[in-house]
């Protein structure tokens, strides 16, 4: 952690106690990331290692909330290639570090995940939910925190995303809004269909299936199709297996 702080720009200022110093650091980081320079994945993974450290070290609730909101808003002004790579590196970092977060720090990282999910939706809405961009981001989720079979992805992170996903979408696209019918809801829920179809963990499948039964989805235009062959096979095996006495 100390090595990360020394090597990553802006980190010392972002964990400062006074708000003015933190705000200046966020502004500098926003300028740095929104420019026309080309970043490599390694560049942004190193940066995210430092930003993760910033959240880890933030201590007061108001400071924690402000920091997570500010970091999530960094995405708003990025060039497209930088934004998608930055989000990919965020999720990769969260997956890697999740199991090492202690119970006293977990709340602020739950908040960080919520803010970044909201930021992702906000970014896509600002681009009119263009299907190519939505599909690209869904691929990031399916290969990252919502990967169905990767045992390195903590189920606790999957559960959190299942719990908050539709709530954060509804904040941007209320179900009673006429415009909300235009969102590509079939694309937006593909990661959860994948979890239902392919996850080897019954609780993940059940919670994902429950989410797909949420009445808001129908109001957004989602029409539930028949169960996939994989899902039906899962359920058949579960019915056959009676468990231990």
UniProtKB/TrEMBL annotation:
It holds the Pfam family Nop52. InterPro entries: RRP1. Keywords: Nucleus, rRNA processing. One of its GO terms (biological process) is rRNA processing. It is found in: Nucleus. Signal peptide: none annotated. GO terms for cellular component: nucleus; preribosome, small subunit precursor. Belongs to the RRP1 family. This is Nop52-domain-containing protein. It comes from Terfezia boudieri ATCC MYA-4762.
């Amino acid at each position: 952690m100390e090595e990360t702080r020394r090597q990553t720009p802006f980190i010392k200022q972002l964990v400062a106690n006074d708000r003015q110093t933190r705000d200046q650091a966020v502004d500098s980081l926003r300028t740095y990331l929104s420019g026309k320079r080309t970043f490599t994945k390694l560049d942004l993974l190193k940066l995210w290692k430092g930003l993760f450290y910033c959240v880890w070290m933030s201590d007061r609730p108001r400071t924690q909330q402000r920091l997570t909101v500010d970091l999530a808003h960094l995405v708003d002004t990025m060039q497209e290639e930088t934004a998608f790579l930055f989000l990919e590196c965020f999720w990769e970092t969260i997956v890697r570090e999740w199991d090492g977060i202690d119970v006293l720090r977990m709340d602020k990282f739950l908040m960080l995940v919520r803010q970044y999910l909201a930021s992702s939706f906000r970014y896509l809405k600002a681009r009119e939910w263009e299907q190519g961009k939505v599909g690209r981001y869904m691929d990031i989720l399916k290969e990252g925190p919502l990967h169905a079979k990767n045992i390195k992805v903590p189920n606790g992170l999957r559960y959190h995303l299942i719990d908050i996903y539709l709530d954060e979408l509804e904040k941007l696209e209320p179900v009673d809004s006429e415009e909300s019918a235009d969102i590509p809801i079939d694309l937006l829920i593909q990661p959860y269909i994948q979890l239902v179809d392919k996850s080897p963990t019954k609780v993940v499948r059940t919670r994902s299936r429950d989410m797909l039964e949420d009445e808001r989805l129908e109001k957004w235009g989602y029409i539930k199709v028949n169960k996939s062959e994989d899902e039906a096979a899962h359920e058949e095996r579960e019915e056959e297996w009676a468990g231990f006495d």
